[in-house]
Amino acid sequence: MKEMSAVLNILYVEDNNDIREMVVELLENPERRIVACADAEAAWQHLQREPVDVLITDVNLPGWTGTELARRWLESDARRWVILFSGYDFKSTLISLGPNVRALPKEDFDRLDRLLVEIDRARQTGPLGDR
Description:
The chain has helices at residues 17-27, 40-49, 66-74, 91-97, 109-125; strands at residues 8-13, 32-37, 54-57, 81-85, 101-104. It has a five-stranded parallel β-sheet with strand order 2-1-3-4-5, sandwiched between helices. By secondary structure, the protein is an alpha/beta fold. It has one domain (8-125): Rossmann fold (3-Layer(aba) Sandwich), CATH 3.40.50.
């Protein structure tokens, strides 16, 4: 059985520097390790090298979209956690991406924080139901 990290490893992808820095600052706590990337290609390289529990990505990115990045990452394990943190409505797309894909509006930081707490709990105790 794979040993689980004590911290929740988060990869956050956002091309806007100000938003990226603000979100990282808001989400930081001792139980989380957050790495931020400015584009999907850099994020993909990180995903190939480092363990990541949750991918949080904007959708509108230069090069690949956040949705394309999520699809590629989910190809090898559809149960991975992805949060599309954007202003788009994804209800129909979420089901096709995977069971642990969620979408949140960019300004809903409280809900994002709560979801990360739930994901961390679920990775330690078992699956999380639909939210």
